[in-house]
Design a protein that fits this description.
Distance between the termini: 35 Å
Number of domains: 1
CATH superfamily: GIY-YIG endonuclease
CATH topology: GIY-YIG endonuclease
Helix content: 40-55%
Strand content: 5-15%
Largest sheet: 4 strands, antiparallel
Radius of gyration: 21 Å
CATH architecture: 3-Layer(aba) Sandwich
Shape: globular
Amino acid sequence: MCLFRPDSFLAEYPRITPECDRWRPMVIDDCTHSFEELARRVLPIHLERLQINIATPLSMADFAERGAGTKTLLKRCRLAEDFSGCYVFLEREKPVYVGISRTVFQRLSQHVKGTSHFDATLAYRIAESGMHTRESRTKRMANPEFRSLFNGKKEYLRTLKVAYVEIQNPLELYVFEPYCAMELDTNLWNTFRTH
């Protein structure tokens, strides 16, 4: 039941009609699927494609290779250009982290080559998980002891495998990340808390 529905509101938002309280799917970022369609059909298809790629993952050590930039890595994988998509880190075939990016290969390199909490965010999150002090990220990164721990966690990430799936539509991509994290049970390192 709608408590507020003046005629001026209806004129401004023609998707609502007096005959029907139901919203028609709103197009966001060119995604024409309703949320129900995303949840029931689209997201499971993306997950199925990702699970196929999980069977033949890449080594994160390749993304840490000195002198191997994004273009080189894309070429090795027979890809013409970087792409928007979702990736999952695997430790001994078990998913441990799900991430998304508009430039997946560049982002994967940042995870293992990054030098700050801005680019190597997962290494930072793992390193800080054992800390019980309230310091700013900048102060932590300036601490030599923490920096050593942070670098060790980047080394850990280099031992993992990674699989990915291309998802071009931004809305599908953003909705897929928590769906995928929940389906793959990556709750140890995935969080959706905002800063």
